[in-house]
Amino acid sequence: MSKRCTTAHTVLDIDRPSRSNLTPPTMRNRQKAEIHLRSLLNESEKSLPALVRRAGDNLGSEQLSVEQISKLLKTQEFLIRRLARIFYPSTENVQHVKTVTIPQAQKLTCILNSTMEVRALVFFLILDEAGDEYVTRAGMTEFYEKYFKGLKTLDGDRIQEVVQGLLQKFHLDQRDRIDFEEFYSIVSKDLILLECLSQFTVHPTWFMNFPSSQPAKQSKFQEIFSNHCCKRENKEQKKNKLSIADMKNNLSRIIMLIIYLLINLGLVIYVICYRTIKVKSNVPIVFARICGMLLNFNCTFIIVLMLKQTILIIRSNKFLRKCIPVDDHIDFHKVVGRIIVVLSILHAIAHVVNVGAYNSHSWVAYLFTTEPNIGWVGGFASLSGLLLCIILSVIVVCSMRWIRRGGHFQVFYWSHLLYLPFYILLIIHATNFWKWIVGPLFIFLLEKFYSIVTRCSSRNGRTYIHSVTIEQSNVISLNIHRPKHFNFQSGDYVSINIPRVALYEFHPFTISSAPEEKDYIRVHIQATGDWTKQVYQRFKEMAEEEARKNQIKIYRADIHPQESLANFQNVEHDQIGDQSNVKSNKREPIFIKGPYSSCARYVFDCKHVVLIGGGIGVTPYASILSSLMAQFRASSIACKHCNCTNYLPTDLSGKRRLQKVDFVWVNRDYKNFEWFLNLLRQFEQEQENYLALNPNEKRFLDLHLYFTEIKHDENIGNAPLELVTKTWKEVAGQDIFTRLQCKTHFGRPQWENLFHSFLSMENTSTVNDVSVFFCGPSSMGETIKNRCRTFRFRYYEEKF
């Protein structure tokens, strides 16, 4: 028998009689742990804890495969094989370990919930793959290389760098191997290692989740009924949660809704009185006229809701935006659009009924000819009504979420331009509609004229692309020369047109640079739709000669991640070329419409803000954080004699209302947004410099990063990761993934606990003025909105 097998039998020989628990005080730590481990392995099933026995009774099979255990514990198979080797000490190759019996699974549960000495020994045996009673430098390196390759979170060079920090912790940077006594001595004296080892455990009922039988499949009717009941239950819960505080926070919305309903109700009463008392119309005509009058108002109001420059003025005034719920204009636009569809259908049905019951003309003559002579323009009312229904149907279908979010934004964009023939036909169709539309239409056309003039002017909107960064995960960053009179605020967005990609298409994107950057504006684009993919491919595949001809710099951060930081830092220092080049065809031209405002403008009017971004939803907050960093830098002064830098506290705290920022970022993989991590690193360093020179000042920015690719489970699967992340933090002073000083959390946030932390002792001065700004998936937004209602935080959501 090999040395490895002999050693393993020596350690874990289950046939050896167990000794008394009263061990001599001079006994070595390994001997103590081995005795305890053998006693657990030799325990009969009847002596196991009742909870563990009942959990095993629920299993339908007599054994579990390594793959099944791996799924149940959400960890990697190779780790389970090494762990299960304590039951098969004579197995030379861990790959031969295929199954674990139910009694063994029950005993394993007891072992991993045993004393710290036993768990330390089990972890030691996992690292000791060779079975020679030592953890070697090569063995620990091999273990973590396999572990990180399974997680797919770090590349090869980074893994080697991180493992070196762990080897240093266990003194394996100076020695080739350590035995268990040295291993346990290091662990027992280090609070961080003890905390990590405490997570090297499993829940007593972990194998109760094993699918012993397939659940009965629900019928289609049962699924629909179940979903309907769930929705009704959620609605009832929301109704019960409605409180006086909610009504106060939504007072402007409630007032606006009441005014809207009263206007519609007033119009209905007016038409009924006029048509029944004065004109003596029949019932279908009265019904048609009611719908027609409501359509006059709603078709006018829906334009008012999309007057972007007017909305910008309202948002810029604190009093007006408190009185008018301007942040809901897109949602209100959608609601009014649905009301228009319903009213149009009812209006058409009423006229059809009237033709069949009271009119001498046939339906064909009434609908498809001008013979009935209805309308104020050549009897064109019937035909124009039919055309209006067709146009409205096209607009509604092309506005569906699955088209807008499915990468076909241009379909939505071009179909919405049918509003031009729609309103022309509506003026022809309805006798008095022009009286309703003349005012809002004049303002709308005035805004359109202003938009055309500004985007064609080299001082406002006609400019060129200076540099492009191809980021990782299909993201591209455009650094655009900022026109002389182009002014914006943090969180604003623009619509851009790149003629060499598509001549007439404009697409909206949030500005990710700070207003303080006078020479450039920056936008980040994720290649998800047809147009965005064309932009991404154009610059990714652009040859060096073509880039030189177009006087554009292209950085390949997808190949060389450091180029993202280089571009981010150097773009501010690049010299601006001759302005005559803006008009030259050699440049890469781009047209900008905007800026247009969003709720993010309110950030600097709050005391304590919580910025929550999901995925690419971090873009609006890049501008805000860049602006705050620029303010930090603007408040710094350099001594002429010693070149030391200091900060003026009055410039930071005296000129603004904002006192605290908590930034929460939920993302699947940190690699997707290396450009944003660069910004966070710079801000973090700027803040640390400021706090070092002003120790009495409070921390202004706190970062909370959550990466959902790795699940948050305190069990044996995450224990090795916790060990290496906390060790690396201690050795290098930064997070293992982001290189930030703040910790990266795994899984989704526990919103309840996180929101409680915003009300902690250090935030008592801002406890009554917390505003949450969210940009990301709507499902996440609903969860956060409900939490804000519970904690009475103000909630703002940016639609994207």
Structure description:
- With 800 residues, this protein is α/β, with parallel strands linked by helices.
- The protein folds into four domains: 129 residues, no CATH class; 211 residues; 112 residues, Translation factors (Elongation Factor Tu (Ef-tu), domain 3), CATH 2.40.30; 147 residues, Rossmann fold, CATH 3.40.50.
- Helices cover 51% and strands 12% of the residues.
- The chain has 33 helices and 19 strands.
- Strands 5, 6, 7, 8, 9, 10 and 11 form a seven-stranded mixed beta sheet that branches.
- α31 links the parallel β16 and β17.
- α20 runs antiparallel to α23.
- The radius of gyration is 34 Å and the shape is elongated.
- The N terminus is likely disordered.
Query: What general form does the structure show?
Result: elongated
Instruction: Report the total helices.
Output: 33
Structural class: alpha/beta
Identify low-pLDDT runs. Answer: 1-23, 212-217, 220-225, 575-584
Mean pLDDT: 80
Whole-number count of domains: 4
Rounded to an integer in angstroms, the radius of gyration calculated over CA atoms is: 34 Å
Terminal residue distance: 67 Å
Strand content: 5-15%
Helix content: 40-55%
Report the strand count. 19
**Largest sheet at a glance?**
7 strands, mixed
